[in-house]
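FW: tagging you since you asked about this chain on Friday. Here's the raw sequence from the shared folder, copied in full. Didn't touch anything.
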Amino acid sequence: MDRFLRHPDYAEDQHYSHTILTTHVLHRGANFGAALGALYGGARYGLSAHARKLPLAASMVRASGFGVVVGTGIATVMLLGRMYGRQEIEWQDRSWRLLGNKPQNRIDEWSASGALVGGVLGGVREGLHWRGVIGSAGIGSVVGIVGWAVYSNVKGRGGRVEVAGDSGKANVKS
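HL: got it, structure written out here
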């Protein structure tokens, strides 16, 4: 989100604080619901003969779509419960800290990109209906988060490493 919204110097100057925080929380709720839904769909497929009417992938995608809806609903209720009656500065502070957290912003970008790709791929597949499109987007967002974690871990290994001895001239690239 930091690419689209300005991150001011002070939290009191943060604009769109309700929108920023709500978008973030609902996005995380959808991610969590998609992951749990896919796990549930896979487990149900393995444990129930009735669930094997569909292929494993379709079962996981459809369950993930339901999980996205439920996870987003639960995140909505939790956000309303947590922030009910809070002052505007509390909304601004939380959204200001979110925009200032670079790793969180990169996770959001990768997750949203994965959701877009997954949603498009789910939309071109016939027979999955709304749960398939939403489930594909949800799985895509989870894959985006995993992709970011792998990318950041691999990228982090290319840093500078200290070699034993004189630390002033012993920096080498690994």
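FW: Residues 159-163, 170-174 have pLDDT under 50 and may be disordered.
HL: agreed, and DSSP finds five helices and two strands in the chain.
FW: great, closing this out.
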